[in-house]
Write a structure and sequence with these properties.
This protein is mainly alpha-helical. The chain has 2 domains: 83 residues; 46 residues, no CATH class. It has 4 helices and no strands. The two termini are 30 Å apart. The relative contact order is 0.12. It binds zinc ion.
Length: 131
């Protein structure tokens, strides 16, 4: 039978797919803005270099964080296809829907995520987010 959990997971999937589309179109917009800024820099009349660099950096990091979110969404959608989305990778327990709605990229239950985070903090640091 289709449990309410399955319906909840399908709802989260739809949210993720919509978010993915939003990110990809927003990302295009940011790229265009960035190109426009680069054009301005070539203009000899454009003197505010420091400000331009700052804006450049902000846009680059925005694009970077958006790209990372798209990757996280893709990974979540892949886990849905494999039927393991919403299952803790450490203990195999179902991650509560409330947690998945707040953190759709979570791959661990709250308990294991906390433990994992503490281990990561104590050990080596990585650039990858641990959810
Ligand atoms: Zn767990």
């Amino acid at each position: 039978m289709a449990t309410s959990r399955e319906k909840d997971l399908m709802r989260i999937r739809a949210i993720l797919q919509r978010r993915r589309r939003e990110l990809l179109s927003a990302s295009d917009g940011a790229h265009r803005e960035l190109s426009a800024l680069k054009e301005q820099e070539r203009d000899p009349e454009y003197e505010e270099n420091a400000q331009s660099e700052l804006a450049d950096y902000t846009l680059s990091s925005l694009v970077e964080s958006q790209r990372r979110e798209v990757m996280l969404i893709d990974a979540a959608l892949r886990r849905m296809d494999m039927g393991v989305f919403g299952t803790c990778v450490d203990c195999g327990a179902d991650i509560p829907i409330e947690r998945l709605e707040a953190l759709p990229f979570a791959i661990r239950c709250e308990e294991d995520a906390t433990r994992h985070e503490l281990e990561m903090r104590g050990g080596h640091t990585t650039a990858a987010p641990t959810l």
